[in-house]
Task: inverse folding
């Protein structure tokens, strides 16, 4: 990707949102009958969860002790972005580099993975996002349809989450709303390799993806403290949601939704949190 500062920070955030570099969820199974309450999974394995039915978002907090934050947390994501407030915000800087995604035998091989909940692109090390004095590395990015964050109560057709992780394990996620419009060639390297079955993996062999080109030209963001939007709903995630959307064509959006069923968590209460705006500065 090009070395734009805004992208770098974005790279750091990518996943999930969205799902962060948490363990990949197990493939989605068909929803349990409504009359059947989900049972807690044994302590040694992650509980099965879905986006609908008895194991859907309303039940995530009851599926196991590891998921308790999904119900009890007071800084949960996503949220509806409405009124924003001024706040003291640490400066942001980013640095993205074009990445060749190959199947070479290295530690950082990029793959597109259908994990049963979304399609995720695992990313080679290199892109970074700096929030204040903390540097984050882009780990992965993935997609939700419809969007998880809403603006004044309105969903966008899709949302991309770029999950970034610091050396200390902290997470920063960049959210990008995706509206319907003209076809977007920057997404073609990924869209031409979308894995269609849960558990499937597409090696992005000899493919070059410039993450910077996946982002809007205007890099102003809404910022707030939140959580992962999937179980275990861990909090202390720094969210940066771009105020300007990018566009995909109706056909590109349909290509994703033909594979992945609706995978958005409902918006959560803002409680006493503040949503503020700021601009990402380019690294020099």
Result:
């Amino acid at each position: 990707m090009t070395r734009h500062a805004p992208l770098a920070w974005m790279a750091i955030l990518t996943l999930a949102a969205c799902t962060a570099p948490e363990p990949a969820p197990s493939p989605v199974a068909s929803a349990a009958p409504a009359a059947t309450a989900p049972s807690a999974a044994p302590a040694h394995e992650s509980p099965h969860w879905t986006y609908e039915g008895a194991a859907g978002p309303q039940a995530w907090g009851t599926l196991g002790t590891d998921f308790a934050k999904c119900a009890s947390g007071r800084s949960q994501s996503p949220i509806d972005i409405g009124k924003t407030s001024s706040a003291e915000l640490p400066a942001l800087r980013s640095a993205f580099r074009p990445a060749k995604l190959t199947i070479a035998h290295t530690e950082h091989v990029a793959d597109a993975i259908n994990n049963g909940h979304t399609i995720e692109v695992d990313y080679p090390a290199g892109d970074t996002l700096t929030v204040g004095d903390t540097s984050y590395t882009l780990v992965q990015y993935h997609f939700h349809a419809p969007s998880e964050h809403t603006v004044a109560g309105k969903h966008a057709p899709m949302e991309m989450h770029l999950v970034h992780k610091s050396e200390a394990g902290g997470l920063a996620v960049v959210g990008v709303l995706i509206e319907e419009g003209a076809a977007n060639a920057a997404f073609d390297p990924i869209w031409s390799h979308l894995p269609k079955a849960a558990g499937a993996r597409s090696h992005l062999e000899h493919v070059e993806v410039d993450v910077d080109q996946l982002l809007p030209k205007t890099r102003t963001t809404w910022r707030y403290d939140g959580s992962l939007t999937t179980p275990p709903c861990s909090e202390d995630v720094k969210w940066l949601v771009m105020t300007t959307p990018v566009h995909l064509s109706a056909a590109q959006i349909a290509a994703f939704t033909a594979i992945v069923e609706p995978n958005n968590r409902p918006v959560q209460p803002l409680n006493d949190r503040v949503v503020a705006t700021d601009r990402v500065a380019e690294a020099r």
